[in-house]
Amino acid sequence: MNKKWFRIGMVSVFVLSLALRFWGLERFNTLVFDEVYFAKFGNNYLTHTPFFNAHPPLSQYMVGIGIWIGSHIPFWHDTVNGLTGSLRSPWTYRWFNALTGSFIPLVVAAIAYQLSYRRSFAILAGLFTACDGIFLVESRYALSNIYIVIFGLLGHWFLLLALDNQNRRRSFWLVFAGISFGASVGTKWNGLWFLSGAYLIWIAAWVIHSIHSFSNSKLFFTSPLLKEAEGRSQEEAEGMRQEEAEGMRQEAEGRSQESGVSTYSSLSPLSSSSQTPLQNLTQLNIFHMLFYLGIIPALIYSIIWIPHLQLDKTYGFIAVHQQILKFHLQLGGNSPNVHPYCAAWYKWPLMTRPMAYYYQTAESITEPLPVMGPPLPAGVGQVIYDVHAMGNPFLWWFGVAAMWFLVGMLVSQAVIPWVKEKRFSMPATLSVDTWIALYLVINYAANLLPWVKVTRCVFIYHYMCAVVFIFLAIAWFVDQCLRSYYQQLRALGITITFIILLAFIFWMPVYLGLPLSPDGYKLRMWFNSWI
After folding, report:
1. Cα separation of 214 and 209, whole Å?
2. pLDDT, tens digit (0-9, with 9 covering 90-100), for 71-89
3. Using alpha carbons only, how large is the chain's radius of gyration in Å?
4. Which of 3, 178, 348, 362 has fewest C-beta within 10 Å?
5. Which pTM value belongs to this model?
6. Nearest 5°: CA angle at 29, between 379 and 84?
7. In terms of DSSP H, where are the helices of 23-163?
């Protein structure tokens, strides 16, 4: 894919994201789901009304900024309500989230490109992210999870850019990475998992480097004849690998000329001489990590609290954190008795318990929806308006399979040499795709596994920080398929892509809250646990 088509593709992904998030943004002239908190909190900052916030305040600042700007725009005010504490249009407290959420597919695509320098991988990652439902829903309302994700992803992107540069330019991007990670934690505490993922991949890089150095150092304790024999065998093996790789390239080029495919990749990770940012991780020392990704995030997090603590002087910095922790510990366990949509962490990957953010019925499409109040009795409502916080089912399911494929790939690369050579060995240079697999698996685990120990009631939207790495995993797998010289794999990649796109279109009415007949609604609720 050349640069021109790559730019056209990325602009198209952004326009699609923007259009879906802004279309009918004022459809429900009320407060949807947790807008009853976050939209009100954002307005409280503008009216200087003290309040207790159960989360760090950054997302509410962003909502408040959006309300202030939106209130000074001479349109968007055809429908208004006073539910935030002031007379506001739904546009004013939703548009900034919609705009912010539109950029998430671009940031995911940017991360994919920095991981591999492959434009096709980046396009697929951005497209799949744009075709997810829960990100679309969260972007269309004054909620907070969009900000956790975008700041956490920006932190990772800036870190990759830092690894791609040297000296002052590296320090420049590391500063921005630290600021972004601090902002993610300043939205909700679980933004810390993005930062922990950065630390874990750095530690993994040093462990790999140490293992390779240790295995090389053992040569000093062997006899000269053995070292010479091992050297000859390594040279012969390297020569054979180069000849095999060259043969595969020539064969692939021949196939590509016949079939019009311009790549030669298969699903097995080949050694690559190209240097990608992840291969530079060991250039960062403990000072870099502690200062740029330790002190700076902590400083940013502390600064974020200043406006809120000046507004509400009930608690100081330490006391307010104690109150937040107390609030979350009192929410109760993961049981329907606590909340009907409680869903433990193990229910998220297969999306067994999504949740309704808004549900209302009407007798006809032309009938205005009540601002507040329960739905009509069963059998009376002929039109259903449902905003369902659920992902694109096939995107999530295929993505989980792709993540397990990456795990299997990593395990096989460690086990096969052990079985063949009866000893553990580490190659001098890991392939680009092996680094990508490590990065995705580690960051997915870092954002999911901490929830194992959380006993309070949690919901599917808490999975958003982890599922972005699922999107990257399935994009990597499809890209490998499409770049393969095997026709069956290319067909598989195309099939997966079309299924994901069709699924997004099929479930779009419950993402956007479009009117559905009872039969149309039931057609999309495949399992009772989805309702």
Report:
1. 9
2. 999 888 889 999 999 999 9
3. 26
4. 3
5. 0.88
6. 125
7. 35-47, 58-71, 90-116, 119-130, 133-139, 145-163
